[in-house]
């Protein structure tokens, strides 16, 4: 009941404010025209006027009404610098706290719905920096003040902490605005506009955010480095830990701009992608696809035949492919580019010092201006009873283990329904293994829309995979010589015998073994960084899988650019990492490619969207190739051609997606794609036809009716 009363009161006050046109009084013109009158009132009622001003300011701020900036200027114009600063400082902080409390006790749900995405960023900031994050927001407003008031209300921040931090953080900006207001009071002619005092006051309004940023940066650095002694000279400009995609790109950029860079890799250059992930898995998928095409050659008018092959030869080809790609990421190549490549285990001993235990014995200590952590990720192995007793492989270890086999595993269980588990399940089934894919969730590829997950499930089942969703793995057992996985489905236990068990339930960031704990660098599931990829220490950065939020080779390389450039040139200019256009593909048959938001995410974010869809069954080239399964689905705002997200299911979906990625990155809409010539007959024409479907749905019906009448008139009327 109390909650409803407060809502009703707030609504009534807001209605009165706008209903009676009170917002018209909160303008610079109104302030200037009423200045003399207010001055007389202040002279006649020296206590009442400041009190009323204070109360109105509190009310405007508490209700998040427009006009706070004008009232701040008015404070300086009416009361002078010091009295105005006193009144505004306390009124704004009290009003902000009241708005904070209203959001906390009354508007929690609506604030969550309206400012959900901003709330995520703020929660991350509070988790990382505590009250100092709020101080930063107040001093350097990344969001409007009223947004901060409302959003902070639904966090766990204490009310008293919110008040005093707001009071302190807003003081500088308040002083600048009040001072500007004092200069407005002095304008009595056109010439007064160009007075040095006024120009200086408003110049301060412009430069204050930059000054505030510098102050915050200085405070952050002093807090971070307290207790550490910075070297006077440095051996390196940059030390990079990890020789995967993130580390290689960071080192490459550093060497390109002539920095002195050391890259430390403990194991294999190229990281997971080259040695265990992208390269070997795609080589396997290709062999499996050819085997599948041989079985179904009759679809193309040829004689179908059962493929005969040596599994050892298949695995040998995979290792050959790795060897052929290896020089691109080799020690020799990067040494030639100017990178000092050291093979060993790195430990960060202080913010500027790295100790390296060399693989060939001995140690090396390097001092460095900056460090980039690109330690990657490793397979996540669940705590499943009996797992170690029966033995298992992961996406890292299967390539060496299976290379010793004469034939594919007869009975293979794949634990996990994500992209890695799905790709490997599909490939081994096509090579002749009896594959059971076990996923405890409702569906495989849970991050995709449900219809996409269903297409993936159907494709895998058609390829011979037994897809077992809603099956929870309980334990592994041995039954004589037989290995068994025990699962629970709909409350009942089920036993699945197997010869090999592949664990593919996800990957976890490598967070230990190189000194993060001793330095106090915070980690959760990843190394915690800010939007510049800085850790607790502004000269230590993290990029790639170890930093998240994505675990793709291309995103690791993307992040590495920001980490390296900020590490080397951040004292002049820093760049916030951009995650706005992140594509990925699951390489099944058909492929599933995505960029931007899905339809499910659009609904969750409350976006007023529409869907444009084109079926590949209508495409000439797809018909000619007998690859008609799939579609293109484009998410756009209602009535606009701006591309918010794209899903492509079909052959070569990963390549078709490139055009949409380019369009989204550079702000091009569907009309631009429609106006671009595409070669006929190609699969790429599907992109143009999808754009054409959007155009057809938005044709100007009224204009077309008038054109019809015009053409009828030109013919001399209907006959």
Helix count equals: 29
- Low-confidence runs: 16-25, 187-194
State the secondary-structure class: alpha/beta
Radius of gyration: 32 Å
Overall 3D shape: globular
Mean pLDDT: 85
How far is it from the N-terminal to the C-terminal residue, by CA? 72 Å
Strand order of the largest sheet: 1-2-3-4-5
Largest sheet: 5 strands, mixed, barrel
List keywords for this structure.
17% strand; 5-stranded parallel beta sheet; 719 residues; single chain; 4 domains; FAD/NAD(P)-binding domain; alpha/beta
Give an overview of the whole structure.
It is a single chain. By secondary structure, the protein is of the alpha/beta class. It folds into four domains: 2-222, no CATH class; 236-378 and 509-569, FAD/NAD(P)-binding domain; 387-504, FAD/NAD(P)-binding domain (3-Layer(bba) Sandwich); 590-701, 2-Layer Sandwich (Enolase-like, domain 1). It contains 29 helices and 21 strands. Helix 13 links the parallel strand 1 (236-241) and strand 2 (261-265). It is globular. Mean pLDDT is 85; it is low at 16-25 and 187-194.
Summarize the structure.
The protein has 719 residues and is of the alpha/beta class. The chain has 29 helices and 21 strands. It is globular.
């Amino acid at each position: 009941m109390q909650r409803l009363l407060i809502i009703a009161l707030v609504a009534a006050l807001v209605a009165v404010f706008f209903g009676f046109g009170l917002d018209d009084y909160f303008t610079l013109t109104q302030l200037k025209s009423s200045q003399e009158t207010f001055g007389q009132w202040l002279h006649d009622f020296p206590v009442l006027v400041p009190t009323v001003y204070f109360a109105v300011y509190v009310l405007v701020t508490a209700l998040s009404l427009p006009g706070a900036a004008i009232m701040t200027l008015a404070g300086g114009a009416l009361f002078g610098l010091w009295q105005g600063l006193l009144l505004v400082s306390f009124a704004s902080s009290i009003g902000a706290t009241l708005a904070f409390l209203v959001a906390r006790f009354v508007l929690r749900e609506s604030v969550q719905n309206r400012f959900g995405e901003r709330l995520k960023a703020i929660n991350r900031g509070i988790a990382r920096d505590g009250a100092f994050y709020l101080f930063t927001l107040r001093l350097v407003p990344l969001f409007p003040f009223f947004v901060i008031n409302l959003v902070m209300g639904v966090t766990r921040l204490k009310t008293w902490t919110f008040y005093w931090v707001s009071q302190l953080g807003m003081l500088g900006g308040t002083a600048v605005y009040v001072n500007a207001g004092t200069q407005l009071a002095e304008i009595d002619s056109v010439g007064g506009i160009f007075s040095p005092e006024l120009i200086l006051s408003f110049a301060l309004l412009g430069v204050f955010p930059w000054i505030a940023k510098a102050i915050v940066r200085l405070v952050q650095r002093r807090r971070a480095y307290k207790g550490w002694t910075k070297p006077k000279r440095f051996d390196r400009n940059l030390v990079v830990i990890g020789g995967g995609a993130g580390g290689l790109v960071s080192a490459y950029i550093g060497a390109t701009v002539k920095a002195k860079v050391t890259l430390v890799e403990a194991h294999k250059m190229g990281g997971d992608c080259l040695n265990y992930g992208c390269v070997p898995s795609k080589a396997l998928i290709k062999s499996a696809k050819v085997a599948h095409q041989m079985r179904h050659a009759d679809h193309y008018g040829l004689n179908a035949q059962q493929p005969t092959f040596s599994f050892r030869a298949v695995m040998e080809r995979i290792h050959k492919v790795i060897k052929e790609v290896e020089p691109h990421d080799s020690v020799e190549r990067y040494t030639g580019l100017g990178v000092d490549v050291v093979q060993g285990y790195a430990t960060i001993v202080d913010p500027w010092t790295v100790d390296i235990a060399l693989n060939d014995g001995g140690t090396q200590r390097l001092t460095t201006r900056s460090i980039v952590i690109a330690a990657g990720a490793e397979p996540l192995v669940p705590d499943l009873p009996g797992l170690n007793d029966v033995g298992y492989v992961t996406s890292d270890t299967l390539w060496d283990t299976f290379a010793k086999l004469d034939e594919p595993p007869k009975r293979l269980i794949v634990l996990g329904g994500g992209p890695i588990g799905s790709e490997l399940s599909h490939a081994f089934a096509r090579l002749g293994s009896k594959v059971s894919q076990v996923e405890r969730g409702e569906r495989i590829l849970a991050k995709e829309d449900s219809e996409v997950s269903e297409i993936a499930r159907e494709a895998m089942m058609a390829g011979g995979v037994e897809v077992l969703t809603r099956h929870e793995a309980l334990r592994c057992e041995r039954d004589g010589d037989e290995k068994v996985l025990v699962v629970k489905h709909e409350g009942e236990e089920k036993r699945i015998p197997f010869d090999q068990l592949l664990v593919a339930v996800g990957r976890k960031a490598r967070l230990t073994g190189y000194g993060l704990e001793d330095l106090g660098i915070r980690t959760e599931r990843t190394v915690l960084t800010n939007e510049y990829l800085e850790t607790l220490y502004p000269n230590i950065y993290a990029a790639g899988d170890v930093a998240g939020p994505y675990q793709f080779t291309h995103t690791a390389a993307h992040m590495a650019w920001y980490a390296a450039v900020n590490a080397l040139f951040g004292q002049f200019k820093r760049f916030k990492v951009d995650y706005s256009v992140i594509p990925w593909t699951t390489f099944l048959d058909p492929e599933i490619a995505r960029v931007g938001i899905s339809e499910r995410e659009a609904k969750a974010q409350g976006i007023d969207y529409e869907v444009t869809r084109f079926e590949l069954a209508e495409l000439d080239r797809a018909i000619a190739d007998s690859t008609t399964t799939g579609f293109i689905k484009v998410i756009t705002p209602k009535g606009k051609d701006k591309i918010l997200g794209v899903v492509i299911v079909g052959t070569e979906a990963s390549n078709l997606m490139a055009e949409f990625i380019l369009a989204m990155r550079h702000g091009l809409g569907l009309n631009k794609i429609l106006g671009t010539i595409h070669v006929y007959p190609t699969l790429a024409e599907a992109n143009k036809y999808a754009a054409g479907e959007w155009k057809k749905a938005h044709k100007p019906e009224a204009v077309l009716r008038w054109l019809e009448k015009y053409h009828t008139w030109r013919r001399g009327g209907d006959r």
